[in-house]
Every structure is written in C-alpha cells, then in structure tokens.
Write a structure and sequence with these properties.
Helix content: 25-40%
Number of helices: 10
Distance between the termini: 48 Å
Number of domains: 2
Structural class: alpha+beta
Largest sheet: 6 strands, antiparallel
Order of helices and strands: HHHHHHEEEHEEEEEHEEHH
Radius of gyration: 19 Å
Shape: globular
Oligomer: single chain
Strand content: 15-25%
Length: 311
C-alpha cells in the first residue's frame, strides 16, 4: 500500500496521472519492440511529444539506441556474469562482487555449500535479487521466483536487444556489508565523463531516489521514484571520487554506460552495468531534465551516429 501511494504521488508530480489512468490498458498492450509502439507508449508516458526517430531527450535517445545500434560488448556487460568478466579483463577486479556458484536451476542449489548469509540473483533480467540468510529465508518461495525468472525472455519486454542472447542462469554471490542502509549509487557516464546519477534506497518498503550531479549535488527533481525527505537523503560516500573515477574509466571503453555501485565496508563494489535505464521510459518530474541529460550524449561517439541517421 505504501509503495502504491508513493507511485500515485509521483505520477501527480510528473503531471501524467490522468494520461496513465486513461491509457493504462492501452499501454499494457503496446508492442515496444517496434518504433511506432515505442513512440505511442512515449506519447502516453511523458509530458511532451515523444519521437525516438529524431531523438533529443535522454529517454528518446535511449529508445533510439534500441532500434539503431548494436554492440557485442554491451551485450556481454548486460549479462551480470558477463559484466564481471569484463571488469576483471579490464583491470577493475577489486570492484567485482565475489561469485560463489552458478546454477541452471534452483534444483542445483546446495545450501550447505554456501555461507550463512548470501545473495541469489539471475543474470539476465532486472530486479530478481534475494538477500538470503539460513534459518530466516523462505527458500521454497525464493527458489520458485528464481525458476520463474529464468523461464522469462527479458529482451521481449521493451525491445532491449542487449539481453536477447543471454542464457538465463542463477548465481550466488557474496553478501555485502554496507556502511549505511543498502543504497544503490547509479552513475551515468558519457565517453569518460560523469554527468549525473541517482541513488535508490528503501527498496523493500517505499523505494525512493535522489538525483544528483557533479559533486553529489542533489537536484529538486524526482526520477522514477519520489525523493526521500530531506532528513533521509543518503550521505555522500567517502569513496565517491573513487566511484566517479572508476565509472569514467569504464565509460571510455563502453562510450556510454550507467555504473551501479554499493558503498561497502571493503570499499566500492559494482552491482551491474546498464545501458537502457528504465528501458527509455524513466520519467522526470521536471521534463527539462530529460532534455538537459539528452545533451550529455553530445560528447559520445554515439552522437555522431545519431545525427548521421536523422536525415
């Protein structure tokens, strides 16, 4: 109930509540594996005319990339296990979370081989993550959800081609002891330059996000979720500069990427690498930020490609 009320308030701030209510059934049936379908969903979803064939905004460009760009390295890094290999191969091993075991099915999981507390994930989708503790976790429920996830073709949802060739797997990895509550620090970098990011906290009860720029400067705008109250804003990590430097180095290789970090007691660790944030449908409560962050692509090699195909 708390999450539903929070989402309702976000839509009100975003000025898209009426559109969402009126067109909710239509949105569910739109095929976002097509350009026309994506533009139609964008029309219902955003508070501006959405056109991914001539992209200007951040979300339009993300959607343009789904139909006009392919990169095998992006595919490798979209696989959560493949991204670990990429990081190890390129000298970022100290930021990789330890993997204990990899499984094709929950039936393969032997809990006796794992420590008392650990994390179970799938490698091919978003959000299938379970913090597990022996004696407390309902493993029957967790295993059922994991098996359901690996049966799903994630790329078919919203046209995100980076997931299309991933063989779905389950893996167990180290539980990270964080300095504060579990907070994601998500950094968008464009060809070696950090431009903006956001945090996500309180996922289990009422997800909140805080958008920031440059020197961890919070902005008065909501992205995806409502902002936390001022007294609940996340702290600037002691390792913030290190996070930025690492993310920028990674983006020099990948051109554009979102690098997700955790601030742990053993230093920053990378959770995942992402290219299609919210599949190109991440709403800002102030649409000028969508246009502002679209301009960040001007420093990338992708920008020349986008311009060459606009016609």
């Amino acid at each position: 109930m708390v999450k539903k009320l929070s989402k309702l308030r976000f839509l009100i701030r975003n000025k898209t509540l009426l559109k969402t209510l009126v067109h909710s059934s239509k949105i569910k049936n739109i095929d976002c594996n097509t350009i026309n379908g994506t533009n139609l969903r964008g029309k219902y979803h955003f508070n501006y005319k959405f056109d991914c064939t001539r992209p200007i905004t951040f979300n339009e460009i993300i959607c343009w990339l789904k139909f006009n760009y392919k990169n095998n390295l992006w595919k490798k890094c979209a696989d959560k296990l493949g991204s670990k290999d990429f990081l190890l191969e390129n000298g970022f091993g100290k930021y990789v979370v330890k993997t204990y075991k990899i499984y094709h099915s929950s039936k393969d999981i032997d809990l006796d081989e794992l420590p008392n507390k650990f994390v179970l994930k799938t490698n091919h989708d978003s959000g299938t993550v379970f913090v597990c503790e022996k004696g407390k976790t309902n493993f029957n429920e967790v295993f059922s959800k994991l098996d359901e996830s690996i049966k799903t073709k994630y790329s078919s949802r919203l046209g995100e081609w980076v997931y299309e060739d991933i063989v779905p797997l389950i893996f167990a990895e180290e539980f990270l002891e964080t300095k504060n509550d579990i907070i994601d620090y998500k950094l968008f970098c464009f060809n070696g330059k950090f431009e903006w990011g956001y945090t996500v906290q309180n996922r289990q009860v009422d997800s909140r996000s805080s958008l920031f720029e440059k020197n961890f400067e919070f902005q008065n705008v909501d992205y995806i979720f409502l902002r936390p109250r001022k007294k609940d804003l996340p702290p600037k990590p002691d390792c913030y500069d290190e996070m930025i430097n690492v993310a920028e180095e990674i983006s020099k290789i990948l051109d554009f990427v979102r690098v997700d970090f955790y601030d742990t007691i053993h230093g920053p660790k990378i959770g995942e690498l992402t290219f299609f944030s919210m599949a190109g449908f991440g709403r800002f409560t102030k649409k000028q930020y969508d246009f502002k962050f679209g301009k960040c692509f001007e420093r990338t090699n992708l920008f020349r490609l986008i311009n060459s195909k606009k016609g």
